[in-house]
Amino acid sequence: MSDESPAVTAIRPDQEIMTKQQLPYFVGISGNTVGASGLSMHVVVIPPGARAEPHIHVGYETGIYVLEGGVRTRWGRRLEHETVSRAGDFLFVPPGVPHEAINLSATEPARAVVARNHPAEQDLVEPYAPDAGT
Description:
Elements: E1 16-18, E2 24-29, H1 31-34, E3 40-46, E4 55-57, E5 62-68, E6 70-75, E7 81-86, E8 90-93, E9 99-103, E10 110-116, E11 125-127
């Protein structure tokens, strides 16, 4: 048994990173920031009128809580389904489901807290080209 006890760690995300989805993130909890082994949690900002590049999350679930604004999430093989989330709504994205997020406002950013059951923020995000077939 180790003499070192696990530590409670506070972190304030103050540096924006650009993600593979082409959205700015403020990374909070992750393997890199606090040594998490099964969780990452951060804030995403979708600028006015912006959208994420279509993508999938390989092997992990994602939970999203919308803090501000409205977001249309298109999902499915051809991004043929959609749901709208507004401040106060939760959104669940299963592993491997192609999706993109679109800010509904042309003038205000949308902000959300994003949590994943994996400690890496971007390692298992892959771009997705929607299937144009029937």
